Structure prediction request, 420 residues.
Amino acid sequence: MLFRRSCRQSAVRHSPFFGHSDLGISHLPAFCLFVLLSFCFAVILASCRTQAPFADAAFQPDNPLAMKPIVSHKTVAYRAAKLFMRGANLGNYLEVPPGQNWGVTVSADDFAAMRTEGFDHVRVPVGWHHYAGPAPDFTLSPGIFSLVDFVVTNALKNKLAVMINIHHFDELDTNPAVATDEFLKIWEQIAAHYQRYPAQLAFELDNEPHAKATTAVMNPIDARTIAAIRRTNPRRTIFVEPGNWGSIDELKNLVLPPDDNVIVSIHCYEPFYFTHQGATWAGDDVKPLKHIQFPGPPATPLVLDPSPALNRWVTNWIYRYNTLPPETNPSGPIAFGAKIKFARAWSDYYGRPVHLGEFGAYANADEQSRANFYAAFRQVLDNQKIGWAIWDWSAAFRYWDKQNRQPMPGMHEALFGKSK
Ligand code: BGC
Prediction:
């Protein structure tokens, strides 16, 4: 740990002065020097101690050395993180390609409802790239700006902080070298458009980089994008996600510029076989899954239809789900607790606030299990003092029952701890 290491080095370096006093220093100037140096030494030790509450003794920093810790935890980013504690994703809306409709409509009432429910921010996935003209300028159409302006303005009007991102920019994942110019140009335009907006508006560079957009590949691209945004938005809060879909395991590969207004966004959908049971877009493992409860084990062991054949690791997971007690059951808080704790320790060491930008459970799961899951996850996040945004507001992982204008059963209590 860099800061701790430097404390230890200074202790070693200064110890000979104590030795000098043993060597018979009796005249006044030497004594004064000794007192002065002892005082300095004490100050250095005290300043080391003031950092100690942030450090987790078990945490081993492993990032490339180019990732410099920011020692102060009083940065603009830490202040900004307080605006983004309890959020909802406005999913399946502005990230949808033009001409398609994924079943979500949004009106000004949605933002008022979010605020009344207790949310303090909204994360807005946007498919800007669908609205970009040809190279080299990649000019964004005014149409997408009016759609995003509507959301941002109504969120701010309802005292919600708001974060806009670039979502599902697949070209960046499949060919980052080629798509970087477009990525930069899109961000230059977004940054120019929103430069006079209040500090409650934040930018998130890229949702869930994955495939060829590894953390190592994205580090320099993100640094260039941050520099480009800073030309028009010197004080805007910027969220950055690590690779492998915003994985917590990828935090160790992040190299961020020494910018004091960057928050790191992570995603966690564990336990995946519970949260994505029956999802059609998340791989073959989860498609045949259903009736998985949270927490396990179920009262009656789950027996899945053997066709199509399930992978060995899925059947093994189901076996453990059916048999292990709640404390060690894979469909339980054990699936995410240690990860979130690691994120906290990483954040403390590197001096970068962390935000969980997506977690959630598909509405295929039974209502009680969903409520149990959101409650357990929210509790872990609150314990670790990490801000969060659920996936999602009113789509397939919904909090809000739009038809009946009320939260889905148990969801308000799960997230806010009390009934209204
Ligand atoms: C995707 C959504 C998806 C959700 C859960 C998000 O990042 O944008 O389309 O429903 O993850 O899988």
